[in-house]
Amino acid sequence: MSSESKKAVVLVSGGLDSTTCLAIAQKEGFELFALSFNYGQRHQAEIFAAKMVAKAFGAKEHLVLDVPLGAIGGSALTTGIPVPKDVPLEEMQSRIPVTYVPARNTVFLSLALAWGETLSAADIFIGVNALDYSGYPDCRPEYIEAFEKMANLALKECVEGRMRIRIHTPLIEMTKARIITTGVGLGVDYSLTHSCYDPDPAGKACGRCDSCSLRKKGFEEAGIPDPTHYAP
What we know:
This protein is of the alpha/beta class. It has helices at about 15-25, 45-55, 90, 105-120, 140-155, 155-160, 175-185, 210-220, and strands spanning about 5-10, 30-40, 60-65, 125, 165-170.
């Protein structure tokens, strides 16, 4: 397998960050292979959004894998634990919230590695962010650096010298406002995206969870109208 391939596996959740990441990968000339996960999250709105986004960007393929993290539990996103609402930004950044899903990015990136190896795609994009985020440990630079090092020790194609895995995190040092302005400049239609942790039965965003609060803050600071339909 050639490490010169311009294929990229892009983790796509249907949210604001992963969609911007997809747009950046496209701008950099990669052929897009979108990867999403049905992991037992409390709603399917993000899977629907991921499909819309992958289609809008002309992904060569969009793979949706069933990964039953809900059976493990431990998160407000996969169990009946209440999703926190109206949390001040300072508090968000000072602790790891109950919306953290145990080992989620490690599982997702590992499956991205497997698909990338079979596709001859040495480049993996993930929209993690370490500035305007909810404190997740698997969104931090030191985690990504360690994972990339591990990845290049784990795959046959890497060990035999035919591939070198690169984990791209183009958003990791961006504010949410900068992410939004970057995406708008690349033609992203954010009305296709979904960020809410706890939407109503109609799929409307709650407007009060950590993810909604960060999204609102980002659009406000960017001076760009938020196209999200929030529940009353």
